[in-house]
User: What shape does this take?
Amino acid sequence: ESPILFVKRLVGDIYLMRMHCPFIAETVLPGQFVNIKVNDELIPLLRKPFSVCRRSKDEGWIEVLWKIVGKGTEIMASYRSGETANILGPLGRSYTIPADLEVASLVGGGLGVAPLPFLCEELLQANKTVEVFLGAGTVQELAFVDEFQQMGIELFLATEDGSRGKKGLVTDILLERLKQDSSSKRRHLFSCGPHGFLNSMINITSKLNIEGQLSIETMMGCGFGICVGCPVQVRVPKEGEKRYYLTCMDGPVFDAREIVLDD
Assistant: This one.
């Protein structure tokens, strides 16, 4: 049981929660997730997976981000500081930072922003150049804009209704940026978001021959590969090896060349 330090609404129905859990804060890597048991009732039955949004080793806390979409997240929005949360973690496979990486493009679709602040902090500590691209349907679905701006990195915003940033898709402004880049610096794309968005990211990495990693958003009820509820198809299965990965164990972060996603 981890003490809740605060829960706050960031924008629209998007909430941020900070919890004191020193072991997870010490050991978690960017892109890994925690599974939270929302309450002690039968409904909701399964734990909810959340990417670790930020952490502090020194102060022993982690943060998770969510949007109210059902009973479980509605219950979490009612949590108060001083209460406790039942958390398992850190779970899953993290992003990896190539040693020879020079420019990192972090691309979040909607709540896919969740693991990117933590990743951004780690990249900056490793003295990498970081650009962040955030997209959502409307300004009420854009989170962590101010926090990224405070990091002093270059930030690009897109909303489908034009209420903030450029009107359109975040992948469009990413493509514009990539086409303008005439440098020979080694670039890597790190992304997270819904499957349709991630398929666009897979296409971009393939067509432009840029390496990329993506984090999948899906239901991971157990987090240990027991419930087998989070399969993802292997792009080119090898003889005698897996045809499907389990997101909770083999991911949630994958090389963009590894997998096939349904829209």
Q: What stands out?
A: The chain is about 20% helix and 35% strand. The helical segments are 22-27, 71-77, 116-125, 145-150, 170-180, 195-208, 247-250.
